[in-house]
Amino acid sequence: MARRIWIVTGEYAYPMVKEYVNRYVAPLSRDMEVEVVKIPVKVIGLATSKVVLYHLKRLIGKDKPDIIVVPGLVRGDLREIMEELGVRVVRGPKKLEQLLLAFMIGIDNLEPDRPAEDIIGDKLGEIIEKARSERLKESIMINNLRMPLNPPPFITALILDHGLGTDWLKNYVLTYRPDILALPPREPDEEILGLVKDLRMYDGRIAAPYQYLDTIVGEGVMVSLVYGVAPEQVDSIEDKYGVVVESYSDLASAARRAEDEPHRVILDASLPPNPFSLFDRLKQLEVVEGIAKSAWPTNLAWGVDVDSHGLYGLLLPLLARTGVGLLFIWELEEKLYWSLQEIKALNNLFLLSAYLGQNPRDLGIDMLLVKPRILHWVGFEKPYRVVEAVPNERIIMDPMGIFKIRVNHREGIIEVLYIGRKGRLLIRGRTAREIRDTIIREGLLSRLDHASYIGGELAKAEEALRLGLDYIQDDALLPSRKDKLEIIRSTLENNT
User: Fold this and answer.
1) How far is residue 47's CA from residue 72's CA, in Å, rounded to a whole number?
2) What are the residues whose beta carbons fall under 8 Å from the beta carbon of 72, sequence distance 6 or more?
3) Sorting pLDDT into bands at 50, 70 and 90, what band is 355?
4) How far apart are CA 415 and CA 408, in angstroms?
5) Strand pairing class (155-159; 180-182)
6) For the chain, give me the number of helices (H) and strands (E)?
7) Angle between helices 311-322 and 278-286 (to 10 degrees)
8) Fewer CB atoms near the end CB (10 Å): N or C, the chain?
9) First CA to last CA across the chain, in angstroms?
10) Which residues contact 456 (CB under 8 A, 6 or more apart)?
C-alpha cells in the first residue's frame, strides 16, 4: 500500500503549493500518495507549532497519514504534534522550490528539529553526482575525457596562469578541482611545469597549446588534449591526442574537421571579444550538432570589463544552448581571479536546474555591472604653471553645522540630515544637484572647503543610488584594484 504524505500549508500559499506538488513532486513520488492540506491560517510561515497542532487535530481522522511535512518556517517544537497525533511529523524546507529536493533525498531523512535545507545541504553532493551521471549519458568520449553534448554539466579546464604564486595556485586547484589542467599559451616556465608534474592526480587530463606541445611533452608532462589548433594542422598531431580546433577565422572548415573525427576533435567556439557579435556566433554554432564544443568565457568577461562575474550567469546558459560543454577558464589578471569558483558554483546550479526541470534561482545577475574598456583622455590647454595638490593638515569645522548623508534605496532617494545653527533639518532628493541647491538656498554652509566636501559626497551618493551600491559616508564606493588584490591575498592566507 502506498504511504500517505500530508504537506501542510496556509490559505495564501495553498494554490501555489498545490500546483508545485502536482507538477514536480507527485511524478517523483509514485510509491506515495502526496496530498496538500490547507489549514485556516493566512500565512503558514507566521504560525507556531501549537497553532498547526490545533488545526490538524480538527482535520485528522482515523485514517491517519504516515508522515506530515510542516513548512520549515513554522516556529516551535514539532515533537509536540507527533506525540499528540501519533504521526511522524518532519520539518520541510523554508522555500517551496526546495521541496522537490527534500523528496529526492528521501522524505524519511527529514527531521522534526532541523529545516530541510540543512539536511539537503548534507546530501547535495550525492544529488549533484546523480544528476551529473544522468546528464552525461548523452556525451562523447575523447580519449579519457567524457564530453557532454547537452550541457550542463560543463567540463572545466583551468589555465594555470595568474600572479599569486604556484603555492596559491596549487591550493586553488586542490580546493575547486577543475576537470582539466591547461598550460598557458606561451613558452612554458619552470614553475608551471613543476606544478603540473606535482599534481600527478591530473595525469591524462592535461591540455597544452599546439605551438609548444613538443616542448611540454619533452619535459615529461603527460598531455591528453591539444588546444589552439587550426583546421589544417589537425593531421600533423598524433592520434593519441584530443584536439581543440580554433574556428575564429574559418568556422565551416573547423566544424567539418570536428564532424569528420567526432571522437577526437573538439570545436572551439572562439567567442568574439565584442559582446555585440556574440549572438551571431552562437547562432552559427547552434546548427552544428553531434560534436563536442568548447569556449573561453573568461576571455569575454575580460573584454567587456565586468565588476561582477554575474556575467557568467547569463553566458553559461547561452553556451549550454549552443552545446558548448568544455569551458577554458583563464584567470590572467586580478579582475578574473575566482572565475573557476564562480563557474563551478553555476555549473552545479544549472545542473540541478536541468535535472529537476525547474528554473535556477539566485543567479546574482542584479550584481552585474558592465563598463566600456576604453579610457577617455581629455586634452587641456597648456597651463601657466602646475600646482601639485596636497590636503590641509588641519581640518576646520564649519560653524554653520554638520551633515550626515545616507542613501535610501527603498524609496530611491538621498537623505541629508543637517544639525547646526538653523536647527535639525532633513533634506530629501533624488539627485546631488537638487540637494546641493537646497542646501545653498537654506544657507546651511559658510566655508568653501565644507561645500566642496559635501558636493563630493553627494555625487558619490547619487552614483550609489543609480547603481544600487552600498553607500557609507567618507568611504569609497568600490575597492580599488590594489584593494581587490589585497582582499584576494588575505582570503588566501585565511584559507591556507
Assistant:
1) 11
2) 91, 92, 93, 94, 115, 116, 117
3) confident
4) 7
5) parallel
6) 17, 17
7) 30
8) N
9) 54
10) none
Helix (H) or strand (E) holding 349: helix 339-356
How far apart CA 256 and CA 232 sit, in angstroms, is: 11
Q: Is the Cβ–Cβ distance between 157 and 326 less than 8 Å?
A: yes
The amino acid that residue 286 corresponds to is E
Asked whether the predicted pLDDT for residue 212 surpasses 90, the reply is: yes
CB 306 within 8 A of CB 332: no
CA–CA separation, 130 vs 139, rounded Å? 15
CATH number of 139-367: 3.20.20.70
Note whether 159 and 330 are within 8 A (CB). yes
Query: Per residue in 297-353, pLDDT tens?
Result: 988 888 776 655 578 888 899 999 999 999 999 998 777 888 898 899 889 889 988
Type of residue found at 254: A
Tell me phi and psi for residue 444, to 5 degrees.
-100, 0
Spans of all domains in the chain = 3-133, 139-367, 401-481
Q: Of 242, 240, 184, which is closest to residue 211 (Cα–Cα)? A: 184
φ, ψ for residue 349, nearest 5 deg: -60, -50
Query: pTM for the full model?
Result: 0.66
SS3 at position 89: strand
Cα-based distances in Å from 22 to 6, 89, 99:
13, 21, 12
What's the CATH number for 3-133?
3.40.50
C-alpha cell at 353: 536546474
Alpha-helical regions (H) of 240-287:
251-260, 278-286
Exposed/middle/buried for residue 166 (C-beta within 10 Å: 0-12, 13-18, 19+) = middle
Q: Is 378 exposed, middle or buried (0-12, 13-18, 19+ CB in 10 A)?
A: exposed
pLDDT at 389: 87
The residue count of the chain comes to 496
Place of cell 513520488: 29
pLDDT digits over 395-444, tens only?
889 999 999 999 999 899 999 999 999 999 999 999 999 999 999 999 99
- Residue 365: the pLDDT is 54
